[in-house]
Queue: 3 jobs
Job 1
Amino acid sequence: MPLDRVYLDHAAMTPLSAAARKAMLPLLDPLYANASSPHLEGRAAKDALEDARSQVAGTLGCRPREVIFTAGATEAATIALHGAARMMARAGRTRIVLSAVEYPSVLDTAALLGTQGFDVVVVPVDAEGRVDADAFLEAAGDDAACAALMLANHETGTRMPVSNVTSALRERRIPIICDAALAPGRLPLDIAELGADLVLLSGVKAGGPAGSGALIVRRGTRLEPFLMGGVQEERLRPGTENVAACAGFAAALEEACGDQAERATRYAGLIDHFVDGLGGLEGWTRVGSATHALPGLVTLEVEHAEGEAVMINMDLEGFAISTGSSCALGSRDPSPGLLAMGFTKQRAASTIRVSVGEGNDRDHMERAASTLCAIVSRLRSLANR
């Protein structure tokens, strides 16, 4: 990547951290083998894998056996939702409850289960994209099979009232799945305090390598295996583990969570600086909740400017941002999350997202804001010709 480019799409993928790279390099040696093999090389790989598992557990305040390594939060979501729903269906519970703005891996998996005999209840959100805790608990009732509520929305950064529902759902013995992929480095992340039974994590959101992540399965939570073919990862994610990726994920997660408070303050300040730089631009509004905002992320609705055109022009000027119209990259359909917030298709298509992370500074934000103002003004003048 050219040195003069500015990367402002950390909510999609973070650059690999130095800690992750350092942890991975020794494990890329050809002498490392399948961690399930009994020979010397296999045992060495197994030791490295279990060290990474203990590192994740220590970072999050959970037990090593509760850490199931996956290829990312999407795979973790599929394993968790299928596993919890099908296990609870044995007891006659077939209702799945989730918010209208969950990540596509959760929404799409629930939709598939809806074609297989499950009743999927989608709880609406308000104009800021936040679900009402009482409405969520009412939808769950006393006999839902499972529930899913993310910690913070990937498009708008709006934080959800997860801690307000977890204890009540656990009393009702309803497993709750929480997508916490954006939390590392931005929000405090302690498994016991969070209270969820199943927690989804992604390496690419935390400075880890692509193809890494974890599903945290609270002790006592039973899942019916969705994937078959091996005994690895408590039989929930069978197949040969990518030991280097697991180690990189563990190192990146520890680093991000270790200085979370400092990072969150710095990220929030960078976003404030960026927003302040838009003072001369008219016709834009912040999407999502300002009160319950994820540090380091802002989505803007820009009137009379198509989000994709803004993104392309920013890219040409050396700034990597994303559109806020879809959290499934490559899709041209309007975001279900934004539509659930009351946006029309046209308004959804006029949104962009800026997300910061390690390596960004105030100069980046000043330049990005100035460039954005110039691009939007140019696009509007062209549209008025």
Note: The chain has 13 helices and 13 strands.
Job 2
Amino acid sequence: MRRRAGTPQRPPWAGPLGLYHPGRSWLHRTGPGPKALGLAVLGVGVLVVTGAWASVGLLATTALLATSARLPLRSTARSLGPVLVTALLVGAYQWWARGPATAVEVAADLVTLVVAATLVTATTPADRLLDAIGRAARPARHLGLRPELVALAVGLMLRTVPELVRTSTEVRDAARARGLEREPRAVLVPAAVRAVGRARATGEALAARGLAE
């Protein structure tokens, strides 16, 4: 069925790794280095600080930072939907196995880290983020690793995740159009074939440019 002219098309879910939104907030103006350092400090804090109330406090602080970045609420919440569902499932299991306090702590910590990582990618252009990764990877030269290849690998990951999601969405829509949306093979097999084909094409492109070694 054709989409009516003038009807805006909803963008596909890009996941927490593909959410850059231009803006003028203080987080947008902050360089990628300080934001990456803050993310690392937060990660250590999540591991060191224990207790349900402390985890909820870290989550609330991260949510306030997200609010200050003035990100689009609908698209950001949509991208975090699968993470929230995962956190609920993990929290439910922890509630059953270890009690409500542990459940709240584990679920809150998971959401906190994902939201914080989303803030970094959502407020940092990909080229600046990759440049910062390349600079941070310079000491890896002593181990025989080329910093530009490290940055390239991260860039490919950031680009691949939204593409895989888009592919899965297209395959699921095609299966639904044939009345096979409840047939796992009609979704998993085409998605896997297309993912492998994309990986091979990417590898061939890198080899053609001498970057496969």
Note: Helices lie at 26-29, 32-48, 52-68, 73-98, 100-122, 126-136, 147-177, 184-208.
Job 3
Amino acid sequence: MTALCAVGCLAATERMIYRQAFGRVASMDPLRAGDEMCAKAVALVYEPLLEVDYYARPYRLKSCVCELPDVSADGCVYTFRIREGGVKFRNGNPVKATDIKRCLDRLADKTNASPGMWTMASVKTVEVADDQTVVITLKKPLHVFKWLMAMPFTGVMAEDGTGSGAYWLKHWRKNHEMVFERNPTYRDKVAIDELRFYVVDDVSTQWLMFLGGELDYLGSVSRDNWDAVIGKDGDLLPQLKSKGMTLKTSSSLSVFYVGFNMKDPVLGPNKKLRQALNCAFDFPAWQRFLNNRILPSNGPLPPGIDGRLETPFAYAYDETKAKKLLAEAGYPNGVDPKTGRRLHLEISIGRATQDAREMAELMASFYDRVGIELVARYMTWDAFLTAVNEGRTQMFNLGWIGDYPDPENFMQLFHSKNVPPGANHGAYINPAFDKAFDSLDWKTAQEIVREDCPWVFLHSPKVYSLIWNRVENYIPTDFAYGIEKHLRLKRAGAPDGPSQAR
């Protein structure tokens, strides 16, 4: 009896530790959660007013710091009440309406230059009705406003910097490792005690770490490892299934693109040139390079968004048309008449991994066919974002992951009100587009953008992720912010997956 009790007590006190590769995080301030990695890290510690329901499909919102709001008949007044039972910061203090107002005011403050400042652009006032109630009045109705209040930008932070999330940041060795510890004051049961996120740029190293049981989750199967993981039927190879791995596949509410700096004297005023650069992009070759894990972009909206135009994109891959447009743009055969040489363009890329270099080389080969020289400039992520927002790039490679499933979230990337430091990174300005956007005329807005070509429209990815079977309750989602609080791990010694030292 004593021996059995000892074994049971040992199992009961075993710490559950979850590990995965992660990207570089520049800041843990919710105001700076402008890229995927920052947003995912921030969401573990700081909770927004609302959150996306992890289990619901189609996606819907649920309470987080606050209950779902009451909305006035005219759609302009949102009354948020702190959830029943209250919410506590890790320091033990209750979250009050004054904390929410302070954080939202800070987000809206232009002097803070938050990349998420656009989420507050429609807000007229934020007022405290009582300790438990915040009233937000909009300048005019905005049908997606509740979704904005579920973004990591709106995470509520105590004055001492602590949050109310399921975890707190225990250790951060910048650009190497982040360790998050379960928040003992969190209101709900959380099964995993500790999260260890390792910054590992090399995808082959990530795969070897996962294969060796050093990682519990692999966010994507790399192009180089594709044939060693995925069979011709698109499923996980049987020998890997037998080891205790599971493949999870899903579509993606995201778009990837090459943006043009519309203030650049070469690209900005020359629509024909931008159209030619779209026509010269060899999507079939790009798709083969990426193991058919992508869907073509025919404009700014990803598949699965209601209202997406499905008509053929006029500037899809067509080399003959690209050469014709180049000549009309003033660059016959790709030659710059000012220099008598090939037109020289530069693309800035915010990472220097092997994959990034190979993708840039492939892209350069597409433009070489029509006589254009494309040169890549590799930068650190922080330096890249700064250069893009300061207009010091000519072309730049970026992606946008949907914050909510509505055309507005993607189309706002082209509105003049969102020029840098906002999400309109290329500083595209077209009054006709703004008018269509403001009237929610998504068909006209898409047609304008597809004709103006402020981007090279690349692709929307399909997601292939791997987990060990010891990870339970993992559901692929486009809103993977703070989802670790929903995961569970089987105890050490379980048959599904490699044994792990604790």
Note: The first strand starts at residue 17 and ends at 22.
